[in-house]
Amino acid sequence: MGRADPEEGQLPAPVKPPDGGWGWIVLLGCFVITGFSYAFPKAVSVYFKELMKDFHVGYSDTAWISSIMLAMLYGTGPVCSIMVNQFGCRPVMLIGGLLASSGMILASFTTNIIELYLTAGVLTGLGMALNFQPSLIMLGTYFDKRRPLANGLAAAGSPVFLSSLSPLGQVLLEKFGWRGGFLIMGGLLLNCCTCGAVMRPLDVGMKRKMEKAQDKYEAKEMLPIGGKSEEGISTTDGTKKAKKAKKKPKKGKKLLDFSIFSNRGFIIYTISKFILVLGLFVPPILLVNYAKDTGVPDTEAAFLLSIIGFIDIFARPACGVVAGLKWVRPHAAYLFSFAMLFNGLTDICSARASNYTGLVIFCVFFGISYGMVGALQFEVLMAIVGSQKFSSAIGLVLLIEAFAVLIGPPSAGRLVDALKNYEVIFYLAGSEVVLSALFLAMATYCCLNRGKKKEPLPEKNLSAGGGSDTEEAESDVQEAEEHSSDNHQPAHSTDNAVVAASEEANHVAEEQSGEGGGCPEGDGEVLARDGCNADQMVERDSF
């Protein structure tokens, strides 16, 4: 069957993710937003030495700028979810772009470190948070079958922007100073507004088309006579307005859906992600200082991060392609567990690397595993909770991750100061990542897969995850077509026959209403039989 035509009175298919078209523009916007969100807090570190000289502060004081940015990115997740559910993705992203840009512009006029915390840290961090989360929500709206690939390509924005923003910041620092660099960086962040502007809601205009088609469909079903069809359409318009007036006292949409905590898959994912973040970011943060302590020159030590970023650029899209394969996608949670296990074992095996060659090998494998984790983390979450509840789920997950971010790297830094030994830190971080991988794999197998085997007829609940939006939309279309085919009767060749059939149907309806229910008998047996089958079908579907 082709696409339903509203002009012919047929019901159009429900809105489905296009997996292309304008979705590629949305993907490009998400690529840029992801790059700014993850790379910008790290790229700002280029200006730290100049800030230390001007404000007469230490390195730890300036490092709080990046920490505050990351804390705002993760910790404001529920606030972003509430704003998205209330106002939509596009307005929230436009406001976020303005906040991020104005924060860096105001930071260029600051006179002390506290003002930098409030402008570059809080304001810019909040603006990037208001862009990052809605962009992921829109990506899940536009892609379903190609969603793993889309997530991988969007996640590649982080290493690409990290590789470009850091050298750009160094050039701006040399030519314009840190104030001029902050001002230009603020102008670059205005591109977030452009990315927000292209986030067009997928169902704009489709609801109107479906309502008009529904009216025409009902009119043609009720009044098949050609001369009265227009009159029927006008009457259905009146009944439609009356129905809208009755539906006004309906409860509003939840600003933050806490019902996702009843989903066992979401609980398992959240716990494993908290354990993962405790150790995931520790090795790249300490890598440069670790290399310097082993006798590696400063320039070569800094190049190690470039190796991780370069490998990461290709690892994320490649992992997205693999995750999108038909025989791999149903088991995305196990692939995510493998990626975390790979990353944790890389940390443990490289803890005793004592020369530059060993550190380069570590960077190669760490870049591959780190890219796999980055490409799969949000894809697995979308598969668990579904696109409808993803806005609330990602906000709550980011809030929980914020606590892990504030615990993990600072604790590792204190252990380094106390023990003067990086080897123990790498063992500890790798063990945490391995533990998260084992917990996710074992809990998914024991708590989810065994539960599915025991339930022969599972409910089609979106919050349980596992089903794609396209499959649900196709099933809805089939139900609508079956319902319309059961209730539709073939037209007679003459007007007299049509009038006689309509009078006979009215007579049967009167008898049925007088008897208080049941299937009519006698002359209207054919019509009554069709009506009963339709009712039985509706009851069976609802059960």
UniProtKB/TrEMBL annotation:
It is a multi-pass membrane protein. Residues 23-448 form the Major facilitator superfamily (MFS) profile domain. Residues 469-479 have a biased composition (Acidic residues). The chain crosses the membrane at residues 21-40, 63-84, 91-110, 116-137, 181-202, 266-291, 303-325, 332-353, 359-378, 390-412, 424-448. The keyword Ligase does not apply. SUPFAM superfamilies: MFS general substrate transporter. InterPro entries: MCT (IPR004743), MFS (IPR011701), MFS_dom (IPR020846), MFS_trans_sf (IPR036259), Proton-linked_MCT (IPR050327). It comes from the Eukaryota. Keywords: Cell membrane, Membrane, Symport, Transmembrane, Transmembrane helix, Transport. It is found in: Cell membrane. Residues 455-543 are annotated as: Disordered. Residues 487-496 have a biased composition (Polar residues). Its main location: membrane. Gene3D superfamilies: MFS general substrate transporter like domains (1.20.1250.20). The keyword DNA-binding does not apply. GO terms for cellular component: basolateral plasma membrane. Pfam families: MFS_1 (PF07690). GO terms for molecular function: monocarboxylic acid transmembrane transporter activity; symporter activity. NCBIfam families: 2A0113. Belongs to the major facilitator superfamily. Monocarboxylate porter (TC 2.A.1.13) family. This is MOT3 protein. It comes from Corythaixoides concolor. The lineage of its organism: Eukaryota, Metazoa, Chordata, Craniata, Vertebrata. The gene is Slc16a3_0.
